[in-house]
Amino acid sequence: MSIYIIILFILFVSLIIANHNRLLEKPLYYVNVIFLIFISTFRDISVGVDTANYYNSFIFFDSNDVRGVEVGWMLINYICRNYFNSFTALQIIVSILIFTFFTKSVNVYSKNRILSLILFVILYYYFNSFNITRQILACCICLYSLKYLKGHQIVKYIIWVLIAMSIHSSAVIMLPMYYISNLSFPKPIIVAILLSSYIIPNYIMPVLYETLASNELYSMYLGDLLLTRSDISMNLLLHTIILIFILYFSKYDSNYMLLFIVGVFFTNVFSSQEVIARIGLYFKLSLVLLIPNLKWKFNSPYIRYFATPIIVVLLLFACIIMLIANDSGVCPYKMI
Question: In whole angstroms, what separates CA 4 from the centre of its chain?
Fold first, then answer.
């Protein structure tokens, strides 16, 4: 776990330096990205629950064995298998793609790129990329597609979501967002909806179970699907509290806020079903653009100054707790 502490330390030091000298923000951002790509690329196949599965799929690659519409992932494997014959090549290409789409987004829409990068790490997206690699890549492609959602360019938005679906078919959940991205609800209604997300799962899961049972693509997961409600996770509760805090005490981008609301609601509802709850990752990734652009409405300049750091520190503690619990199987870290 020491390598992850080093990563977090370097990122936060970089943030402090960049805040004192804005000219250093861009070079420091890219230095950190290169370091993160290096750590991700040269990890052993024992790091990350699914890394060994990706390795086996690569070694025994069969172009005729494609799940759903995930031809994009097949193409990446095909290129790395036939032109490089190296699993390390696959890991570096995927890592570069993840940070390419992430960087394209934060360069345009984030007022603090290093803070966005820190959020990508402490929200556990980076560490999840060691495990659910395809889905994190699809999430970053969908994050990039938001530029077309905000620009009301439906054709380009759909094209990029389809590209994300070619990596992981669950990205289909982002298609309806074009039509609901401009919806607006009174704040009390949003809070009521969020609170209901802790109550309604017991009524939704039986119906969902029956639906999945009839779907060949996802019925394979039913063996791990239990129709029980898990205890409320402190991490989910933290995200809900942060959402409500931002909702009432800041000026925010409505598109990113709506995505975050949907993500928190979806994750809460399916909190006992990890495979399904992961779909919420597509929406909650908007937090890396939402937080750096917040304008707090507090009268006190001290509260305005410390509001964002407090949120970041709370998310950092949640990240460290997840690392200690070895979430996604990323500990201990070993290099190839």
Answer: 18
